[in-house]
Hints:
By secondary structure, this protein is α+β, with helices and mostly antiparallel strands. Helix 7 (184-198) runs parallel beside helix 8 (240-260).
Amino acid sequence: MRLLVLFAIFCVLSCAPNEESKQPNIILIMADDLGFECIGSYGGTSYKTPNIDKLAQSGIQFNQAYAQPLCTNTRVKLMTGKYNFRNWTAFGILDPEEKTFGHLMQDAGYNTCIVGKWQLQSYDPPGYPGSEYRRDTGMKISDAGFDNYCGWHVGHTEEKGSRFANPTIFQDGKFLEATNGKYGPDVFVNYLNDFVNKQSDKPFFVYYPMALTHDPFSPTPDSQIWSDEARRLDNEPKYFGDMVAYADKLIGKIVANLEAQGLEEETLILFYSDNGTHQKIYSKMGDKVVQGGKGLTTQAGIKVPFVASWKGKIDKGQQTDKFIDAIDFLPTLLDVAGVEIPEDFQTDGESFLPILKGKEQKRRDWVYMSYNPKPGAHKAHLSPAEFVMNKQYKLYGDGRFYNFENDVLEANSISPNTEKEKQVKERFQSIIDSLKKYPTTGSIERLAPELDSVVSKHARIDLVAEGFNWSEGPVWQARGQNLYFSDVPENKVYKWNDLDGLSVYMSPSGYSGDNPIGGEKGSNGLAIDENGDLILCQHGNRAVSKLVSLKDSISPVFEPLVSTYKGKKFNSPNDLFYDKEGNLYFTDPPYGLGKKGVSELGFNGVYFLNKEGDIKLVDKDLARPNGVVVSNDGKILYVAESNIPKPLIWAYDIVSPGVVKNKRVFFNPGEIIKNSTAKQNPDGIKLDQHGNIFVAAGDGILIITPEGKHIGTINTGRTTGNCVFNDDYRYLFITADNYLLRVNLRPYAK
Length: 750
């Protein structure tokens, strides 16, 4: 009998739930545009934040928590656990191919829910330059790994409606009706609490990216003016304090609901922010006034509040200086859930669960950021940045080094003088080198002060791809943010973008016949016409052709636009340029003829092809016409002559389409080439938005003002063929021998 009793007791104990193994609930709250200086527990004195302060007092406050300077950058980083350089596409866009922490928490056995601001599917408004290539390319809220959702800004920006008074809210597959008179943040939190109250069979994960305290700075239901319905959508910074108070109130409402449901011991609450406060807002920390730094890489833009509370699991009243970044949340969520990071999933983050449990953890004592606010509407005033920092020092990727403990606004870059500073800078540089996507090569020679406004003194030359025979003819395609370029001797066109890297786009590219021929046989110069079609200067086919179909990379179908002049075959069309009316200028030197090839024409020409297909000879007196471009105002034609004894860059006045006069030498690079190592004769030529000429010659790319002054050279360290700008003129791509290079012309801003 005694054995039976003991056996029964054993069964009861073994069948009882193990509280330690039970997966806890998690609520991750992320405020919008709320810097650390606004929170009472961090020393903020301008606003009342009793509920956030209580979370900090009941758990742990992180005093070195950081986020990206802008919201999308942080949201993408937070939800995927990756540095932005790995998966950034555009502002307001989350790559739909990515896995989010929503997907992973579903896989871990959780019921998942998101409420609040989405803004990751479509951002640019119609008509914004490049918007047609980015609109509606992001992830839908319904595909992001959440079983239930209640969100704002789930589609196009121009259709987003209000997030505050009379909100536009998409909830579980349909837009809510009868929201007039309601307040968006109330709708979100009511939905959140209802979701929590319905859970019983599985643990839950709730992600609440708040709409508060982002502008417009509008009244809340607790503002005195709320009773005046006509004023509810006012936008004045004076309401920011009301918005902070209301955000805090809603957090209190979430906590109170957990307590009412008896879930506070089973639920981890994380409160974070996506970036610093809006720059229009000035807040106090005692006697110190702090201006918001949203969009900037200074402390006011990136240092954010982060507190964690978990009754009975996290000791009360803790503070820590351990570094936390947005990448750390995803691995922490999985750690809390008790599951491993999937083998096929890459994260840059480190779980901070040991810190929550009060355990010692050896983790990084620095933060690295790769920040790019572009492309995206209304981001022209912001610039990308890359840096590493700890509690005292910060090193940018361009070499600027700050002691921001003494210089919080980073007004003066310092040279490391002490042994400590030298060691810190050296260590930070090694971190940047290990994390940055591309190695640096070459150098930039500055010959005049004017260059600083064209190519930032902080610019560097990135090696983004290599291994070609002779790279040439790059063209930028705004749609998809792709670069195409030729490998002339290999008869290939490559495609490159920052996310997917390099791939063969087509082969053959310039000679599509069956019988091998000698000489340079591939395509050279490339262009995109007004219809978005790829146009190729084909050496082997001796034609300017359009790519009409590409079933796969080895099956291109071309349609010649023009292959003869007065019934005689071209030598080898080399470079080309479309003017604003869609007419084409191109050059026809002898390179593709090979050593034994004979020109049918008997000269090397510069040609004009109008939209109707009519061709004109512009100039037949150049020995080696090469790069060609038209000035931004359409009045001047520039041609680079790659003539070994007499290399020149010519200018012509355009009288009418295809008709020129006043041929003259614009620039003579003879001495530069003579004194160079590469001895490259003038080749490809491009103009920036200000009319500055970028021409391949000498040891790289010469930069010449519209007045003909040589102000600097991008030294590639190789013979250099051509270059092209991306659509916002921030990046210059260079084809140089076996390299594809990229120069971020205006790389950094605070």
